[in-house]
Amino acid sequence: MKFGIFYEHQLPRPWNEGDELRLFQEALDQVELADRLGIDFAWEVEHHFLEEYSHSSAPEVFLAACSQRTKKIRLGHGIVQTPPGYNHPARVAERIATLDLVSNGRVEFGTGESSAILELGGFKVDVASKREAWHEATEQIANMLTMDPYPGFQGKFFDMPCRNIVPKPAQKPHPPLWLACSNRETIKLAARCGMGALTFAFVDTAEAKKWVDDYYRILKEECVPIGHAINPNIAMVTGFSLHEDAEEAKRRGQDGFRFFGFGLGHHYIFGEHKPGRTDIWKAFEKARPMLPDDGANRGIGTPDELRAHLGGFAEAGVDQVTFIQQGGRNRHEHICESLELFAERVMPEFKEEEAERERNKMEELAPYLEAAMSRKQKMKELSDDEIPTFPALGRQITDQSALTAEQRENMEKVRAAGEKAFEDQR
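Request: output the structure for the sequence above.
Response:
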C-alpha cells in the first residue's frame, strides 16, 4: 500500500493569540518531515466556517507552500468543493493547473460537494441539487484542463463562454481525479465516474473488503469516465498515534481522534452552532466519558498493532491508507515522533512489494479501463473557424471625447498596427 497524512487544521477552543499561526507552521513542518520519510501523500481539505473542526478554507495556498518545502510527496486536495456556488469551475481549473506546475506535477485533484449546512447555506448551495451541481462542474473542470480552447458551456448551474483556460497542468491529460466518499453509495459513484475513492467512513477491514469489491466490480462493468483519464484507486482513512507503549500511544492520540469524530458529528449530524460563540471542545469534554474507546482498531497503538491493522486493509485491496494524525489537541512533537517510528518500524514491509502490486493491478485492469474510456462521450472540439473572436474592450469604446488629440492619435496607431498584425496572422 501507499500512505498519506491528512489535514483539517483542527483548532479547539479556547483560542489564544498566535494559535492559528503555530498550527499552520507546524503542519508545514510535518509535511516536510513526511516527505523526507517517504510518505506518499499529503491531503488537505477545503472547509468553510466549520470552527474548531477545520480551519482549512484555502487548501490551494497551504499545498502551494508545501510544494516548495518538499520534493516527492503527492499534494492532494482532499477535497475541492466543486459545485459552482463554492468555486467557479474555471477558477478551480486555473488553481489546479498552477499548483501542478509549481509542484512539478504532484497534484491529486479530489472533489466533493459537502454536507455541512454552514457551508451550503453560507454559499447558497442548494442541498437537493448539490450532487448534480458537483457532477456538472467536475466534468467541465476536466474539460477545461485538457481542451484548447475550452468551447464554452451552458449548463444548469453555470454558463461559460469560449475561453482557453491557462495554464495547463504538467500532468496529462490532467491530475488524478478523486471523489470524497462517506458511504457505499458514493464509493459506487466514484467507480461509475472512473475516479479514485477517497473514503472517510472509518470502516473496519471486513467492511472495507465489501467496499473495495463494490468499487472494482462497478469500475469494470459500468464506468463512464467523468474526466479524460481513469484513476482506479481506493484510499481509506484511519487514526494514527504510534508509540512502543500502547497506553502512551492512546494517551497521546486517542482524544485527538475522538474530537475529530465529535467535531464532524457536531457540524454534520447532531449539533447546533452559533457562529463565533459555540464551544465544541467544551461539549466534547462533557461527552468524553460516553465515547467509545479507540486504540489498535483505529491505528492508535504500538508498531506491531498498527502493522496488523494496516495488514487488514492491504488484504482487503485498499490502495492507500491515510492517517488522521492532526486532531483535537494532539501535539506537534508527538505527531512527528509517530511518523518517524512508523517510517522505521512499519512502512518498509508495505513498501517492499508496492511497485509490483500496482503494476499487476494495472495490467489486470487495462482492458476494462480501455473499454470504459471508449464509452465516454467527449465534448466536441471547435474547428478554427468555429472559435469566436472577441474584440478588445478598447475597440468597443465609441466615446473618446475624454482623450487628448495626442492620445487619440497614438491609440489609432496602436490599433492599426494591431489590426494589421492580426490580419497577417489570418
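The two ends are 54 Å apart (CA to CA).
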